[in-house]
């Protein structure tokens, strides 16, 4: 039996998180001219600033063009090409050495098509980062879905340190001045064989995403975080008023590292934001009794 | 975050000293609390700028 016919089944085989684009905590459409930004959870941009819109799109229920009945795919629309000698990438960083290991063989696979018309071959490359990696040129794309794969033996993650770079699209300066490409069911797995995509339970997928990023939004109902006053026995020596207050919060899952915090308040200012992988403490120097201040916070522990 | 366009300041501890736990980073009008930890990628990038003499951390006020 040829290796390509062997179906390996395991819920945790895919090293890519959110490969079926179900989780978009930051919003389901992201327009940008910058890099190092996130759209779908765990998917980031890299390289040269490029004008792009990355958005979530829904499959028609029951479609069979892409197998295993995915619900969503992502559309990547570019309206420029990278500057001379530069590149732009849509990629995911896989945590190493915990999830990706030096010297291992990995295979990337996903489904791709153009939104309309055709996109010429070699409009972008896809595959792995690290020295010695050989990425594949994209095939000519039409509006018909096709599966692409790239296998890299003896993977090198040491050059990038804490992660293995996986490029879904790495767009060179020779790319078309604009293109719209659609991508579904991204998978990275150990070995030489690209097996079928498998959907994780949505709760498991969300928890995997929240290891790296968590967005809390106060709905205005009963999910307020309460400040407790005063925030420290040392308040007097620090000259803080009695209205100083502390607000501890616990993340839904343990994060990869102590995250960078960005907190939105309904009023006032924060004295401190202190985070650990497990939770976060906000402190305010001046508060009013009975007021709930935190309307949103973002915890970012991406790689 | 565009690290070339940020200001960085220590948070103030209860005893009035500079915090050793996190930094107040302002970028494009947004204030971020960045933990002083080499596991945090924002702090790693900020430390590179500081070590390279391109950025200084202001004392707490």
Report on this structure.
The complex is a heterodimer of chains A (303) and B (61). Chain A contains one helix and 17 strands. Chain A has 303 residues and is mostly beta strands. A six-stranded antiparallel β-sheet of chain A has the order 1-3-4-11-6-9, with no helix packed on it. In chain A, β7 (125-128) and β8 (136-137) form a beta hairpin. The radius of gyration of chain A is 22 Å and the shape is elongated. Chain B is an alpha+beta fold and 61 residues long. Chain B has one helix spanning 41-51, and strands spanning 7-12, 18-27, 30-35, 57-58. In chain B, strands 3-2-1-4 form a four-stranded mixed β-sheet, covered by helices on one side. The longest helix of chain B is centred in the last third of the chain and has 11 residues, at 41-51. The radius of gyration of chain B is 11 Å and the shape is globular. Classes of the chains: A mainly beta (303), B alpha+beta (61). The A-B interface holds A 34, 36, 232, 234-235, 237-240, 256-263, 270-276, 300-303 and B 1-2, 11-16, 19, 21-22, 24-25, 30-35, 37, 39-43. β14 (260-265) of chain A pairs antiparallel with β3 (30-35) of chain B.
């Amino acid at each position: 039996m040829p290796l390509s016919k062997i179906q390996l089944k395991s819920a945790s085989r895919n090293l890519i998180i959110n490969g079926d684009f179900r989780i978009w905590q930051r919003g389901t459409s992201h327009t940008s001219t910058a890099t190092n930004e996130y759209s779908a959870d765990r998917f980031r941009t890299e390289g040269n600033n490029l004008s792009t819109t990355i958005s979530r799109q829904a499959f028609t229920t029951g479609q069979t063009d892409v197998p295993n009945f995915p619900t969503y795919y992502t559309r990547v629309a570019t309206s420029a090409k990278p500057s001379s000698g530069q590149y732009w990438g849509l990629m995911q960083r896989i945590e190493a050495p915990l999830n990706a290991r030096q010297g291992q063989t990995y295979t990337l696979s996903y489904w791709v098509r153009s939104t309309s018309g055709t996109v010429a071959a070699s409009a972008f490359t896809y595959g792995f980062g690290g020295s010695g990696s050989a990425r594949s040129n994209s095939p000519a794309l039409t509006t018909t879905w096709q599966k692409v794969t790239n296998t890299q033996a003896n993977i090198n993650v040491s050059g990038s340190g804490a992660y293995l770079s996986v490029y879904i699209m790495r767009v060179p300066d020779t790319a078309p001045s604009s293109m719209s490409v659609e991508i579904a069911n991204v998978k990275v797995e150990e070995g030489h064989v690209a097996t079928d995509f498998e959907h994780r339970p949505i709760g498991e997928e969300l928890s995997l995403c929240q290891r790296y990023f968590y967005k809390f939004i106060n709905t205005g109902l009963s999910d307020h975080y309460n400040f407790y006053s005063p925030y420290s026995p040392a308040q007097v020596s620090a000259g803080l008023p009695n209205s100083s207050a502390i607000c501890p919060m616990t993340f839904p899952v343990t994060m990869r590292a102590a995250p960078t915090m960005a907190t939105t308040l309904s009023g006032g200012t924060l004295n401190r934001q202190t985070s650990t992988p497990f939770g976060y403490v906000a402190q305010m120097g001046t508060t009013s009794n009975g007021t709930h201040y935190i309307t949103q916070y973002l915890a970012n522990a991406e790689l | 975050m565009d690290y070339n366009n940020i200001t960085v300041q220590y948070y103030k501890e209860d005893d009035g000293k500079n915090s050793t736990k996190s930094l107040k980073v302002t970028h494009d009008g947004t204030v971020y609390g960045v933990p002083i930890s080499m596991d945090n990628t924002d702090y790693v990038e900020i430390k590179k700028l500081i070590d390279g003499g391109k950025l200084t951390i202001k004392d707490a006020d």
